[in-house]
Automatic annotation (TrEMBL):
Keyword flag Metal-binding: yes
Keyword Metal-binding: yes
Limits of the 4Fe-4S Mo/W bis-MGD-type domain: 7-65
Protein name, per record: Molybdopterin oxidoreductase family protein
Keywords: Iron, Iron-sulfur, Metal-binding
Length: 715
């Protein structure tokens, strides 16, 4: 039999936490089995290209270690299989008992972006609001970047990202797009081939994206604002500023010019580690290239001064006036263009504004009883966790683990694999994967709304997020409230209806909907999103409405009084000092996605083991040899990795790529032992790439001396 003739192609969208949200063509072998996954050629953003890890998705969906049965803990390390009915009955029983003792806020539904599907991801909030469980302030990913961007533009939207292909210069700032947003490179490289466009990459190390650049600028972490200010200084100094544009579209260009008079390339060189020639050359390139497209990522905003850095970088295009041209302007994220109606999915009508909110990033502090983190409310004694792995991905990992190990905490985890968090749970429920349920997605890095219909049946056992929410609602007595009892397809119809985007059936036929506004709107030629229509060089840090503002009960976050009046460099970062001479960034690995794909053989083989990228001169000073064990630490703890000597980083900067499972590290503790959960100004957010550390060489050990670590990780 010719198996190839039996394969059909199904259409879907990648569900993972990535701005690309790639449209997919999936080989369907039978009702439970997939083959290769391809990028959709018919989608002009995906353009037939996807990352290798998703192309190999069959490794994940058919993985032999996938969770297939509900599990109930019967002791330390002992699990017993259970029926779905028994497991859900136990969860409801424990939640009701916790609520009876401490009130409803003692239960904390906790989730994030393991799926970006709007129905499966967000339905947990419907249960939250119906039961008046503790609120969830989402801070782990986007706050710092989105806040800084919107401070300038007034809206989380920008130039059509497909316009990169029509640009004469593409600036990829603070994102390793080859590893994390592969489609950015598709359009940038097309511009270089067809138009001779220059690609500029700005980052903290010589990563895969920088290797494809025409101009690469490697600067010190947390200093992007200084670079942006020096560039704008040169633009004003050398006559590249577009004064007619500035006068019409910006709030205080004369004040900005005066402020920048002292922000010279020499000033920025001392802060960033770049040479003055590098700064001057970059400024001259964009000053003489009107069609310059700034593709601003998330990485450079994951500092305590990240919102300031983002605002400063976004401000450059307003000085040059590149917004006026096709192929020019700025793009960061398109969330502001969709206006999708999520009220029914979220249970918005059920929300009680009096209920406290807890900071997602501070789960370690919450679970260990920190009074400030608990916001004056009761302890958290029950958790429902979907789509995230906080024991691995959250900052202050030792506190997180300590909290999960409390005897009085009951935890239910709904998961696809036995993650670090699932291992600490009391009940583990097996979850479906994206090809096994219906959902709808919106692009962050593009402008498409894309349907992800169910294409294959799950194995016997896993259930959808919506199923878990609905079944718990029945047991907890709220299933008769607004929003419950609807199927995924009915939820999708309601989401689409408000903006006349069609229906589940029409989108299944069309596959996606292009929501990009017209050119004038996308380029803010009708005015920016603030009331006066101006781009704000003078951000109103405390009063501007941003996409993920802290709830009113929390108020402004972090040292907001230290934020600058104009774009600037501010020393809010965890600077290196005598005791901690290195700055650590925990950058993404190419074949992992946060803690996802760390279980697939293809990704594990390509990544090898947890390593620390270390400049050879720093290694020599420490007495560290290539491939040898090195310990790094700070006040939060210490972690052991293997050194990888690498001259594509500034001295004093070390990089640990990827969020490896905790057990992949020598002592069973992962890299987030070293990251902090302090709320960053002005709207909160986790500064994952902003850590000072010390480092020291360790003697090599035999693999047998490293409990819990397989040979592949041994040195």
């Amino acid at each position: 039999m010719n198996l190839a003739s039996e394969v059909r192609i199904g259409h879907s969208v990648c569900p993972h936490d990535c701005p690309s949200a790639c449209a997919l063509d999936v080989e369907i072998i039978d009702k439970r089995t997939i083959g290769r996954v391809h990028g959709a050629k018919a989608n002009d953003y995906t353009a037939g290209v996807i990352c290798a890890k998703v192309a190999r998705y069959a490794e994940r969906i058919h993985h032999p270690d996938r969770l297939l049965k509900p599990l109930i803990r019967k002791g330390a390390g002992d699990w017993q299989e259970a029926s779905w009915e028994a497991a859900l009955d136990l969860v409801a029983e424990k939640f009701l008992a916790a609520e009876a003792r401490y009130g409803s806020e003692t239960v904390w539904p906790y989730y994030y972006a393991g799926t970006m599907g709007l129905v499966q991801r967000d339905s947990i909030n419907r249960l939250r609001h119906a039961k008046k469980y503790s609120g969830f302030f989402s801070t782990i990913c986007t706050n710092l970047a989105w806040t800084g961007y919107v401070m300038g533009t007034g809206r989380l939207a920008g130039a059509d990202p497909r316009e990169m292909a029509k640009s004469d210069c593409i600036v990829i700032w603070g994102t390793n797009a080859v590893a994390t947003q592969v489609n950015v490179m598709t359009h940038a490289v097309r511009a270089r081939k067809e138009r001779g466009a220059k690609i500029v990459v700005i980052d903290i190390y010589d990563n895969a994206t920088m290797k494809q650049s025409d101009m690469g600028l490697i600067l010190k972490p947390g200093t992007d604002g200084a670079l942006a200010c020096a560039v704008m200084h040169v633009l004003f100094r050398d006559g590249y500023a577009d004064w007619p544009y500035l006068e019409k579209y910006t709030d205080d260009p004369h004040g900005l010019r005066a402020h920048l008079s002292s922000r010279t390339p020499e000033w920025a060189s001392a802060i960033t580690g770049l040479t003055t020639d590098e700064i001057e050359d970059f400024a001259r390139l964009i000053g003489t290239t009107k069609r310059t497209f700034f593709r601003l990522g998330y990485g450079f905003a994951r500092q305590r001064n990240g919102s300031v850095n983002m605002h400063a970088a976004a401000s450059i295009a307003a000085v040059t006036g590149s917004w006026q041209y096709e192929g020019g302007g700025v793009f960061h994220n398109s969330a502001g263009i969709y206006n999708l109606d999520l009220a029914t999915v979220d249970g918005a009508k059920l929300k009680d504004p009096r209920i406290r909110h807890l900071d997602q990033s501070q789960i370690g502090r919450v679970l260990t009883g920190d009074a400030e983190a608990l916001r004056g409310g009761p302890p958290v004694t029950a958790l429902l966790i979907q789509n995230t792995n906080p024991a691995n991905v959250c900052p202050e990992q030792r506190l997180v683990r300590q909290g999960f190990l409390r005897d009085d905490l009951f935890t239910c985890v709904h998961e696809q694999f036995m993650t670090d968090t699932a291992k600490l749970a009391d009940v583990v429920l097996p979850a479906t994967m994206f090809l096994e349920h219906d959902d709808i997605y919106r692009g962050g890095g593009h402008q498409y709304i894309v349907l992800g219909p169910k294409l294959v049946d799950p194995p016997e056992g896993p259930r959808t997020n919506v199923y878990v929410v609905e079944e718990l609602a029945k047991r907890l007595g709220v299933s008769d409230l607004h929003g419950f009892g609807l199927s995924e397809q009915e939820h999708i119809d309601r989401i689409l209806a408000r903006q006349n985007y069609g229906t589940y059936e029409s989108l299944k036929k069309d596959r996606w909907f292009d929501a990009q506004p017209d050119f004038e709107t996308s380029h803010y030629l009708n005015g920016f999103g603030h009331a006066d229509g101006k781009y704000r060089f003078r951000p109103q840090w405390a009063s501007t409405s941003v996409p993920n503002s802290p709830p009113r009960s929390l108020g402004p976050q972090g040292p907001i009084d230290a934020l600058p009046v104009f774009p600037d460099h501010v020393d809010l970062i965890e600077v290196a000092d005598e005791a901690h001479p290195f700055r650590l960034a925990t950058s993404p690995a190419r074949t992992f996605l946060n803690s996802t794909f760390t279980e697939t053989p293809g990704s594990l083989k390509r990544e090898g083991r947890p390593e620390l990228l270390l400049h050879p001169d720093d290694a020599a000073a420490l007495g560290v040899m290539d491939g040898r064990r090195v310990e790094i630490g700070n006040r939060r703890g210490e972690v052991v990795l293997h050194a990888k000597l690498f001259d594509g980083v500034k001295r004093g900067v070390v990089i640990a790529e990827g969020i490896w499972p905790n057990e992949a590290h020598e002592r069973g503790e992962g890299i987030n032992v070293l990251t902090g959960a302090d709320a960053a100004a002005p709207c909160g957010g986790a500064a994952f790439y902003d850590n000072h550390v010390w480092a020291r060489a360790l003697e090599p050990v035999e693999p047998t001396e490293m409990p819990g670590v397989t040979e592949v990780f041994a040195g």
